[in-house]
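WARN retry 2 of 3 for item q-0093 after timeout on previous attempt; input resubmitted unchanged.
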Amino acid sequence: MKFNRRHFLKTTLILSTTGLGSLETRLASAEWSAVRFAESGFDQTLKQISNGKPIVESDKINLDIPEIAENGALVPFTVTSTLDDPIKTISIIVEQNPVPLIIQTQLMPELEIFMSARLKIANSSFVFAIAEGEKVCYSVKKKVKVTIGGCGG
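OK item q-0093 returned
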């Protein structure tokens, strides 16, 4: 069999992608917590998120989300913070959703606090961003109105 440059590149690409697919790191793998994301009430979800810590409102957390969502299935949001307290987790909760907990991320203390994604909101509701610190949980909430049919009314 003739071995040329094209054959070499094709073989190398196949072997490298196969090898990368088998690698798994603990930090990069996501875990699904069925208990945390189970259908439950808003108050019960807050208790799970806070881990027994008090929840206080803070103006050092910024939740950027539209006030009116014409499509409740794709609502963009961004969370940033200027808190001095090292943050362990950030959680996004939608009060009126059947499953209130939308996202919960664990952060390394060295990272700058920034999260951006899209979420699904069933009905007009308050959206909460909760940041878990060492001794207290910080929160911010914004009201989002979901319009039916996308007419803005």
